[in-house]
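ok trying again, last paste got cut off:
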Amino acid sequence: MIKSLRARLLVGVILTTVTGIAVAGLSISALFRAHVTELVNAELIGHLGELESLLTRTADGHVALTQRLSDPRFAQPGAGYYWQVSGRDGVVLQSASLEPQQHLPSPAPGADRELVRSVAAGPTGEPMIAYGRPWETEASGYVLQIGADQRIVDDVLMHFNQALILSLGTLAFALIGAGALQAWFGLRPMRRLRDALSDIRAGRAETLPGDFPSEVRPLVDDLNALIDANTQMVRRARTQAGNLAHGLKTPLAVLTDEARRLLARGDTEGAGVLTHQTGRMQRQIDFQLARARAAANAGLPGVITPVEPAFASIAAAMRRLYADRALTITHSAESGLVAAVDPNDLDEMVANLVDNACKWARSAVTIKAARYSPTKQLVIMIVDDGPGIPPDALSRAFAPGERLDEAKPGSGLGLAIVGKIMEEHGGGIELDDAPEGRGAWIRLHFARDGGPTAANDGKGTGGAPTPRVVSKRHCVSPRPDKCAPPNDGTAFLNRRE
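nice, full thing came through this time. structure:
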């Protein structure tokens, strides 16, 4: 099945043109054949009348011509034109185009003076058109015959058909070209619509322009209404999620305060249970709110975030947060590179990962982003020079509330939230030890990037991620291929902008 509308239109143009030209060609050829045959028949009948007018009887009773027929082809052997006069005893006279041993076949008997047409094998064995007529009376016993080879008609038709095929073929190519050009121009609004949707997806526009043809305008209006309705729905969902989080803060604060009072009264067991449960509630609320926000943002068209400014602000914040440790935090990104995610989501993901890297780093943290060739897939990588990650911890690093080291501060939600945000955007997150014992690295593989030239058509997929462990590497993605490139973390870090 042909899925391309342009291909369908082109196939339709080709089929209709070829069919129409073929039917027209066959009709014209048939009409011309009938016309040529009619002309040849009229010519032969004229020659038969001429032959009859030139015949005479000699004094001894024999038949003779007073003069030659006007058509010189009767005197040329192989010319294909013949005449013959036959009597009861055989051929009396014949044209010079016939060899002595060659004769025309006898025509079917007819009434007195009746003209008889026949098509039979001629003197050369080829089909021949012939006319015959009795001469004077039946008692005379003479029959006049005029014939011409069928090839004379066939040759004329062949030359005509060759010219006809050339002319109609040229016309067919011209019509197909005109149809293809018409299809190309006719589908330009659809290409403009596709480009306009790409602009919205890439964040270069918020709605479709209104300068489309009237036939496409209803579709454009419906798409604009759908985009607006989706945007409003997402905004309402985010507002409701924020209201829910705000509404839960007060009860959680009350419960936390109650835990402190229990602890102050010496009820360590009750205070511990209450603190543990409120902590679980807080982590689940934070996790589910982050996931809901990511899901909503992933459905918004035209959401993009410049990568370099986000890196700069996060790096500056982390330098202030870890000023006492004098960490070297560097960042780099290709010029003009943008990520097809909400700014809050990008900030939350990168900040969580950089914060986690700073907790484990000895002296340095590196943040880098680039488009990986040839897929143009956006990859963000964070590397620290810490102790690395134990192999047995890789498979549980992305579980909500999981902390690889209880001595380190935090809720254990950082990697889990990042994994869910990447899942909602159709990408993947990859965790492994850095090359040459340089600590640990984390890579974010986005399904598509937002520029700087154009948005890619990568499609995110929903559903639960299917973690897989390859060697020591752990990849979380609904599509494992999203964690495929690049394989060499060192090469990625050493790329020059």
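cool. The first helix runs from residue 5 to 54. Residues 404-412, 450-473 have pLDDT under 50 and may be disordered.
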